[in-house]
Amino acid sequence: MPESEASQSLKKRFSSRYQLVLVGEGLLVGIFGGAAVTLYRMSLSAAERFLRFITGLAGGHPLAVVGWFAVLAVLCFIVCRLMLWEPYTQGSGIPQTDAEVMGRINMPWHRVMAAKFIEGTLCAFGGLSLGREGPAVQLGAVSGKAVSRGFKRGRGEERLLMTCGAAAGMSAAFGAPLTGVLFALEEIHKEFTAPLILTVMASSVASDFLVSQVLGVSPVLKLVFLRDLPHTDYLIVCALGVVCGLLGALHNKGMFDCQDKLYGRIEKYLPYSRIAIPFAIAGVAAFAFPQLMCGGDAIIELMTSHYNQPLLLLVGLLVGKYLFTTVSFASGAPGGTLFPLVVMGVLIGAIFGTCVIDLTGMPQEYIANFVVMGVAGLFAGVVRAPVTAVVLAFELTGSLDALLSVTIVSIIAFLVANLLEIDPFYEHLLANLLGSTPYDPQSNGKAGEKVLHSYWVGAGSQLEGKLIRDIDWPRDVRVVTIDRAGQEIVPTGSTRLMALDEILLIMNTDTEDESQEWVWNVSRGSITSQNSPRST
């Protein structure tokens, strides 16, 4: 007994000390990742200012316009060469981060960081309608990988530090530390444990502190909420949720079709030539529709300076921004869609609010409420992360007003988009990156009184990497389905479980408690597995 108590005490002290080490490493990742993303944001801002200066001078001078298209051709060539040099920098970088945390790919952190930084800056200078958040997440994640390699950590802890870096990147990109934490846990790691949450929070807060010291503290959306929407008008709120869900599903459908069908055919015959299309369109937009260029800061400034914009202008900006973003992102150009998504959410909220005010005579100051609801609703409908959507909306505005209405819109948008059976945005991109897994034939189980439970296969857990037949399952527990990156698999004994798989289990009600405890223990992620070095 004394030895057992001493062993338990030693284990507890070791665990506490190890958690302290993890928090320290999380802080370090937050500082490095925050610094990388801060420099990236400054580079993008400088590129956009220079772009608008040059195109402003060139406007009205045919030779100068031709010269600018020649510059765009050079930019396109450089970006293509960098993407050939490091293919993991294509697109936003969030699916690549997901795949790395799952253990499916191995990104060379130094090449990804250098290439992504340069590519993103050149795309911003070219005027492509891309956001900074996806690249920021990837830059943060590879910063976490760099710290892990510097300390010679094992694969399990490396995944955790990459999750910390992803949170730091999102936090620095939006100036939203809680959004960074929730996005990293809800979208990337898909596991909530106390040590993980604490470490990710430390990283996200450190990153936000650094970026706020360099770039200042101000909300992205400077909205003024003069009053709360009356509860008697919440049917209108529900209607906006339905609209956001429909438009979120439409957003994904159009993006997927453009990526898979249009650009897929072009890529088949002329590899990487697809990047030339958004650069060419950006050249036209620079002189015809300059508000559509880059991530959308110009539209945000327009909307926050004066809410009451003409309805036709708002609709035109929304359609133009969506089409340009779709063409830019679906091409595989290095850049994200989250900030353009926020911009489109602002426009949807403003359009919906303008129509409601014109039809009902509602006071004009409610436009701000509809704008923030549009941001949260579209995010929830596209990404299918409603909790992150609510937190993001309020960190972008710096206000907790309209909490109830924003939450309702996010929930309804999430449900409507799911009912339409169109894939969540990042899960579809991840499935494309990894390749869709075919359905396997299903084996039948016994009949009886059963109950269903779902679990996540944690990174570094005892289940990861094992064949289903090699796992000593409790009696009367069967694996029904596996959800892997949005693809549903009907498993057999030869199906191998991967990190971040969501497994649906059926079990007997009379042994449910014991079975659940066993599954929880073996599915829980472990940062010290996967050949982590011993601590001293």
Short recap of the structure:
This protein is mainly alpha-helical and 536 residues long. Helices cover 65% and strands 4% of the residues. The protein is built from 18 helices and four strands.
Report strand order across the widest sheet.
1-4-2-3
Model regions low in confidence, pLDDT < 50 over at least 5 residues: 9-14, 437-448, 528-536
Give the overall shape. globular
Overall residue-averaged pLDDT value: 85
Rg over CA atoms, rounded to whole Å, is 24 Å
CATH class of the largest domain: Mainly Alpha
Strand content: under 5%
For CATH, the homologous superfamily of the largest domain is named as: Clc chloride channel
User: How would you spell out the order of helices and strands?
Assistant: HHHHHHHHHHHHHHHHHEEEEH
CATH topology of the largest domain: Clc chloride channel
Find the structural class using helix and strand composition: mainly alpha
Q: Which CATH architecture of the largest domain?
A: Orthogonal Bundle
Distance between the termini: 26 Å
Domain module tally: 3
Kindly state the percentage of residues in helix: 55-70%
What is the makeup of the main sheet? 4 strands, antiparallel
Number of beta strands: 4
Number of helices: 18
